[in-house]
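so i finally got all the pieces together for this one. its two components total, 562 residues if u count the protein bits. some of the lines might not be protein, just check the labels. i wanna see the whole assembly predicted at once instead of chain by chain like last time, that was a mess tbh
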Amino acid sequence: MLFSKMFIPTLRGIPSEAEAVSHKLMLRAGYVRQLAAGLYIFLPLGWRVLNRINRILKEEMEAIGAQEISMPILHPAEIWQKTGRWHEIKEEMFRLKDRTDRDMCLGMTHEEIMTWLASKEIRSYRDLPQIWYQIQTKLRDEARPKSGILRTREFIMKDSYSFDIDEDGLEKSYNLHAEAYHKIFKRCGLRFYQVESDPGMMGGAFAHEFMAPSPAGEDEIVLCDKCGYTANVEVARSVSPMSSDMGWEYEEVHTPQKRTVAEVSGFLNIEPAYFIKSLLFMAAEGPVLVLIRGDQELHEKKLIRIIGPFRTALKEEVLSILGVEAGFIGPMEHKVRILADQSIKKGIYISGANKSDFHVKGIKPDIHFKAEWHDLHTAKEGDACPECNTLIKIEKSIEIGNIFKLGIKYSTPLNAVFLDKDGQEKPLIMGSYGIGPARIAAAAVEQNNDKDGIIWPKNIAPFDVEIIPLNINDQRTMDISELIYANLKNNGIEVLMDDRDERPGVKFKDADLIGIPIHIIIGEKALKDGLVEVKKRHIKEIRKIPLEDVIKETFAVMNEIE
RNA sequence: CGGGGCGUAGCGCAGCCCGGUAGCGCGCCUGCUUUGGGAGCAGGAUGCCGGAGGUUCGAAUCCUCUCGCCCCGACCA
């Protein structure tokens, strides 16, 4: 491909709307443009990247026996009503009516439609297992699109769905996907982790996410270098360091106007880890008192999994339900349901005295109060691994893929059943598995760039090699360039040749920005000695190579880089 | 949905407080020179000042409403 014939609108300046590194670079390098909030146009270079990613996705999906199909993105409401998600999902779903006033929606995912198809077509255990996938547009009216193509309202997803006769079959399909995903992300040149995750509104019991560490990521993951424990903070367990027993007697302490842990801790000059925070929440079942150690934070999702949706109690509610002013609540002697984080199951603590301006020192769990013990705190730096007790790390990460065991969540309401060997009717056991190609691209840029621009991993770069003739008005430069260009193409290499009548500086700057991994520079100086230069974009290393060895050298360099 | 910021030339911005012919830099077009890291000189084009109302002799500027975009938070199969 000739640069002069390709639409590559690079920018010198950085558009002010961009914040994330990948967003800035993909705008500047001419990969994408924004149409509206969360809606992006992929320009020729950007589209080539996505297509290379999609090719890898297809190869690895076909390798596990998945079959590509294509489903509509316009769906009748009826199917979504049957699974309940028409009502469960709120503003995030785009809804519309057709000309006959029938309710329709735009697909945000395809469990319903895939299951509908299976319910119509799968009759016998002999038809199973099946894995169907597509690379298809999804639409979600996100509350807050952000970070360029990392979070958009319309995006392409590789989504696959497995149908099995039993849990063992699902286990196999799930593991096949996990293995395929590892291969895919590795081929795409990403650093990533597979972590335990929250199944969320997808339902089902078991799920993992694939996470690419990056400061631009929206999720935090917990990592243990020693034993390999990995989990999204939404579900991550951790062991908080224990404080030593101070041997306090149970006694009230006067703490006038000191309400928060920070205030009381400062006033008494005692570490926050010796405090118990008592928080009152209102759930569907009624008020619930939640106890968290003073130096920790409640993870709301963990609480939601136990008591369902909740809100914090108002000041008046605290007073009427617990009979004490907020700020002086203690865990002792309340009639409401009490949940406590496991990290305060042992030790000796300070908390509110259940009367204004007083706290109590010397509180012992199970002696001075009773509670249901749960994991409620948010894992943080300084905590230890729940498996092997070494210090954990926390990293921000981009979710690039996920896998869910769904079981019968969709097959039952949509009556997707089959007859087993014994003639018994049984629901299909399902899994669903997603990957966002644009997020792979963005994560690749986030993880691989320098001050000059993008450094694409070789398998997803828009081209393998960029040829840079420095002076297109020099006949010999052009003859050699075209010869190398034709030669590489004949050897199956995708080549971009910068044939523009621009000064060398402009070409170097654009080449670095665009980020094709190998540059072949053809200049008059080196040519006098029969040499051209082969440059690795990522380390800017330049080798001068005799003309006749260029093709061989290019292949050698391609093998050296990631 | 809560909080904050911003809409003026293709991009980045000034002008607004204090109303009076819409500017700067980069980019773009033409010509000449230049050609190993975003060239130099000369000439040129480009604006519904986000939109609608209002105040005024007169509005980019003041007032009201509205739309859009970004950031933080909530939310996120």
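The first helix of chain A runs from residue 21 to 28.
Chain A has 14 helices and 31 strands.
anyway lmk what u think
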